[in-house]
Design goal:
It contains 3 helices and 8 strands, in the order H-E-E-E-E-E-E-E-E-H-H. The protein is α+β, with helices and mostly antiparallel strands. Strand 4 (about 85-95) and strand 5 (about 100-105) form a beta hairpin. The termini are far apart.
Length: about 240
Amino acid sequence: MNSHSPRQRQTAKFSQRHSRPKHSRTSFPLLVYIIGVLLLLFVQPAEAIKFKLLADRYPQPKCIWNTAHENALVIVTANVGPGASQRVDIEIVDSSPRRNVYLSKRGVNGETRLAVTAHADGDVGVCFKNHLDLGHTQTDAGKYNRIVDLDADIGADAVDYNAIAAKESLSGLETEMRKLEGLVTEIVDEMAYLKRREERFQSTNHSTNIRVQNFSLFSLCALIVLGIWQIFHLRAFFKRKYLID
């Protein structure tokens, strides 16, 4: 037998209706927070690349490209694994029309650290060649390879802020502010580069539109002239045949 009065049952239902939405509102942000933490834990940015470099008597370059802006510092750290009867050469170039060659080094072994400054906006490529010794034939090329571990730091990532802090006696906060300054400068340079590209694209689009308009006008004039010439030619032809007066 239910001992609760009708007023108490109405009060219980009222409290249940008002307590459920509060629970859902508090659990949803908690779920979003948990998902965000898991993404931060499991999603890690790729900072290096590791690959197998096959040897050949006449090797083709294997290039790894990274985007860099003008006057950007590029630090390349290459760790070439051991391998007999092979010689690995490294070359740093860019994708500009001049095809600038910043650095070229032969016989790279172990860990090698190289630093260059980009001369133009575009891609900077680190190219490797694995030469097979002359004592081996071309058929032996597939049997030899070396493992290359490559890491490229560009712009603000290439700056050693720990060395700057030790040299200038900067505190931890000042070092972090210096890092933020470098990042902001890099973002400003990126925005300026995008603006220049947009202006170049707009100029190309404008010149293309003008050429299309000029070609259309020339085609229209050519059709008009050709039509007039056909009229006079047919008129003269019919007069010769005495078909018209």
